[in-house]
Write a structure and sequence with these properties.
single chain, 144 residues, alpha+beta, Thiol Ester Dehydrase, Chain A, 3 helices
């Protein structure tokens, strides 16, 4: 596993736990999407503002998602979710997310997701724009 440079914390809310009093599994996917948005804000700027601009040239779609659970999170836990690139392709990239309780070592879960850069007007994949790609490379200190 590559060292993760980006980390973001979320607190487990009552509405996210199930009848077993642990976080319902689907909420972990929401957590990592929140962290992806914060990661993109850190790396490339206000991603949501960019999406609202009709002239933007970077849009992504999720094409693959996997989650491995080790231990449950519970109500009021503060989760520290670290993430980083594990693959940077021409038109896609993959991220890995490590979920643990804040300031604790044991992993609760690991997620891996692959996203594809897409041209919404044409409805098909397209290369990641060079300036966005370079921001990923610089932030992650990426080398092939």
């Amino acid at each position: 596993m590559r060292e993760k440079k980006f980390s973001y914390c979320l607190r487990v809310r009552f509405s996210e736990i199930d009848g077993q009093r642990v976080v319902f599994n689907a909420h972990y996917m929401t957590y990592v999407e929140v962290v992806l948005n914060e990661y993109l804000r850190e790396v490339i700027g206000p991603y949501h503002a960019m999406m609202l601009d009709s002239n933007h040239d970077f849009e992504i779609v999720l094409v693959k998602s996997e989650m491995e659970f080790m231990s449950p999170a519970r109500l009021d836990d503060v989760l520290q979710i670290s993430c980083g690139l594990i693959r940077l392709g021409n038109s896609s990239f993959s991220m890995e997310y490590e979920i643990r309780r804040e300031n604790e070592e044991p992993l609760l879960a690991i997620a891996r997701k692959t996203y594809v850069s897409i041209n919404l007007k044409k409805g098909k994949s397209c290369p990641i724009p060079p300036e966005i790609r370079q921001r990923f490379i610089d932030y992650e200190e990426w080398s092939d």
